[in-house]
Amino acid sequence: MEDEFSKFLEQEVVIDTKSSYLFIGRLQKVGDFFLVMEDVDVHDQSDFNKTKEIYVMEAAKYGIKINRKQVNIVKSEMISISLLGDIVKY
Predict the structure, then answer these.
(1) Strands, E, within the chain: which ranges?
(2) Which domains does the chain have, with CATH numbers?
């Protein structure tokens, strides 16, 4: 496990990727190549008119819309990771 991810483990996080996909859920494990999340909202931004930022703010305000029990995310596709609790609510 990598130390830079330790504060995110077992926490609700937002992972933004290089693609149109956004992941919101609980980070369970960090491997060499994958991040493992549980109780996840996998959101494809190309299907919606809202920006990723607005979608994340709504998740922070109203809760995660879980649509996957578990997801493995390729680490090299990740742009950023944030605690959901650190998202500013409007």
Answers:
(1) 12-17, 21-30, 34-44, 68-74, 78-83
(2) 3-86 (2.30.30.100)
Question: d(Cα 79, Cα 16) in Å, to the nearest integer?
Answer: 5
**Which ranges constitute the DSSP H helices of 6-63?**
52-62
Segment 19-68, tens digit of pLDDT: 999 999 999 999 999 999 999 999 998 877 878 888 999 999 999 999 99
Residue 68 in 3-state DSSP? strand
Q: Do 16 and 79 touch, CB atoms closer than 8 A?
A: yes
Residues, the chain, total? 90
Alpha helices in the chain (DSSP H): 52-62
**3-state class (DSSP) for residue 88:** coil
What's the pTM?
A: 0.91
pLDDT higher than 50, residue 1: no
